[in-house]
Amino acid sequence: xxxxxxxxxxxxxxxxxxxxxxxxxxxxxxxxxxxxxxxxxxxxxxxxxxxxxxxxxxxxxxxxxxxxxxxxxxxxxxxxxxxxxxxxxxxxxxxxxxxxxxxxxxxxxxxxxxxxxxxxxxxxx
Length: 125
Fold this sequence. Notes:
The chain is an alpha/beta fold. The protein has one domain: Response regulator (Rossmann fold, 3-Layer(aba) Sandwich), CATH 3.40.50.2300. Helices cover 34% and strands 19% of the residues. It has 4 helices and 5 strands; from the N terminus they run E-H-E-H-E-H-E-E-H. Strand 3, helix 3 (64-72) and strand 4 (82-86) form a beta-alpha-beta unit. The radius of gyration is 13 Å and the shape is globular. The mean pLDDT is 90.
């Protein structure tokens, strides 16, 4: 039986934040893909087929909420859990398109708990 790594797509315009998240989550055996903006996000999601999407709230072009709504309104991607991230406290609670939200700086233990809650028993085929 082949065990598939859980796939996480991280979208954040802060490349240092992307690198830290990629390194930390790769250590826990997640397969990570990163993007600095939401350009062609649906295409990236359809090709990479992530089990989870970590999406920054403020991005060049469309913001994280707009991108989350596009993901959730697409029949091929609407079952992918989305976690919105922001450095602005109190901003994310109002949005219902996502499956969760976290505030920066991220606490790795809290992030791992949220990931486990959302995709802990989900298998990528």
